Every structure is written in C-alpha cells, then in structure tokens.
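Request: Could I get any protein with tokenized structure?
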Amino acid sequence: MKKKFLEIGQIVGTHALAGEVRVQPWADSGEFLCSFKNMYLRSGEEKINITRSRVHGNIVIMKIKGIDNVSDADTMRGKVLFIDRDDAKLPEGRYFICDLIGCKIVDNESGRELGVLENVEQYPANEVYCVRTPAGKTAYIAAVEQFIAHTDIDAGIIKINVVEGMFDDED
C-alpha cells in the first residue's frame, strides 16, 4: 500500500530573524519542495502552510505561517516535513523512492526474478538501485534507460535489461 504522506525533508536550522527555516531537501531538487504551499508534520497529523520558499545553495529557505521570529523557528529544528502524495505531480517515468523499495527486479528478456530493490542511492550522474539477490548479495544497477526497461509500481515489478557481468556471481 502506498503511503499517503511522504517524507520530503528536514528542518535543519533557522535563517535570518523573521522566522524562516532552513530545510534539507530529500528530493531530486530543492525546486520540487518550493512547489508546495501545504506541508505536514508528524507523519501528516499536523498541516502547516508555507507562505514562501526559495532555493539557497543545497537547502531550501521556507517561511511557515505563524512562525514569525527566530525563537519560534528554532523550535522547528530537527522536524521532518511531509507532503501529501495527492499534491505531488511527478513527471512521466519518475517515482517516489519509497514506492520503488521492495519491488521485484526481473530480467526483461527471460522473466527470471533477480532480487528485490532494497535501496536507491543518489549520485550526481544518476541513481543506483541496490538489489538484494536470492543469494543474499547486493547487486548495483545504474538507474538509466539503458538498464531499466519498465517500471510497474502497482505490480511491484521493475524489469531490467541484464548485461554480462551484472549478475554473474549469482549462478
């Protein structure tokens, strides 16, 4: 079952004196966070309104309605921000990492199950899928068009184009 509320970042500090907070984004880009006017605390239990936001280097500066000074902003430090899945519009072919975790990895050609997606690591060039194989080892697959043939989140399956050496030590 897909989660309704998704972790999107963490408040890591204050910014200036007017009650703005600094947010470490847990998304592909800070701009994605800036597109939300409503966010949530405590796994979606408490709604907060974002009156303005902007990217500043690798963080996002946000102004939360009702947080009007540095002391109030400091009480927010360490809190995790959530978004409502229904408010997020992802481009075609993009997925939330939490939806990918646990998907079966299947050879696109043979249909053989190769393992389960355990983690997604993010690197500057591309994401890397960490797959737990039936033998208990970890295989790494660059999440690029060359290797990822088809993703079906609803079925929990990611079909990949296997190349020589990708799973050689499994046989």
Summary: The first strand starts at residue 5 and ends at 15. The chain is about 10% helix and 45% strand.
